[in-house]
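User: quick one, fold this
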Amino acid sequence: MHLREELETRGLVYQFTDEKLFDLYEKGGQKFYCGFDPTSDSLQLGNFVSFMTAVNFMKRNNTFVMIVGGATGMIWDPSGKTSDRTMLDETMLRDNEKAITKQVKQILENLKSLSGYDFKFEVINNYDFYKNMSIFEFLRTAGRYITVNNMLNKETVKKRIEDPEMGITYTEFSYMLLQGYDFLTLYEKHKVKLQIGWSDQRGNMVTGTEMIRKKLGNEAEGYVMTFPLINDSTGKKFWKSEWNAIFLDPNKTSPYFAYQYFMNTTDEDVEKYLKIFTLLDFDVVAGIVKNHRQNPELRYGQKQLANYLVTTVYGEDAANQAMKITEILFGQGDKLQTIRTMTKNDLAALQKETGGCEISGTEFKLIDLFTQAGLTESNGEAKKLLASGSLYCNEAKVIDIQHTVKKEDFINGTILLRKGKKQFKLVRLEA
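Assistant:
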């Protein structure tokens, strides 16, 4: 399938400056870029749409130049924002740059294992473009090519200026000059001809193509392609603002949480997200959707989506861990057998997701464990729930108030406690 057709089928094309870009990048051997400001030490799910768009270009032997915005991150992009934001100090920005670069490299390795593609990838910090440049040199180089009239007409700026309470700082106003100069520098020094980004970034992006044309002449061709802000099946804007709550760092967002997030995808959105967030061939996606529609209650499509995404972002072990935890908390299979197969890291993750506690000793009164683990507020409540048949230990109903568990009753060093149908706590023996 041709690049343009694939991107459009996946829902990753909104606008572009010249359709010639698709033929150029279909042939391969070109460079393109997308920028990420290091305003956090982790990318978020909102960034992942940018990333998967880039991957579809990389599939065709093009090189992805990831611009880490060490300079632009000092200013903040006003696009989609309603106010100025707190600036980060330089030390924090440098640390964030290292963290997100490491993260992208790992995700590309995960995708390589999944798809077999050997992706070409470079990292450039735009701080290097400006660190030795005076303000006078910048204004003479970048400022001379872009009129204030042009800048004021950009949608992102216009919205901020039209609201007297909101306004826009001069610092933020200058952001598009920096982003434009980034593209000019990449075009001249690194042979980068295309910038990709969200549709609300278009004003900043075409500033770069204008600089290229005005400085180098009409024969110099820089291109821009944007992808759309994504809505779910209800029409709700389902993109950066909500997805930014999900980090692509397992220390910030657990693989299990991310897995559950996609398990809760509506049936209507499964196909759409499989196309956007995976590299699965369209016939494979069609097969998943067909299988899913035969028994939607089994959530087959959501499972395939969640497994692929978590494997891509966090790795295969993390995806297996998330599936095991999901099986224990929501599945109909043998929960104890699943626990037997879990590693120490898996069990630690299960305890973190369920709560519970760690204990030491050789024999324990079961009713005390329910309270100690936090399933009941007191032993008195535990006694009442036991009498009603609502308490379970290792999936067996507790009927004896005096019941004790011994060290040998622990499975893989754990006891699984349950209240009612869905409230679990894991109790682990201290190592």
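User: anything notable?
Assistant: The chain has three domains: 3-231, 254-332, 351-429.
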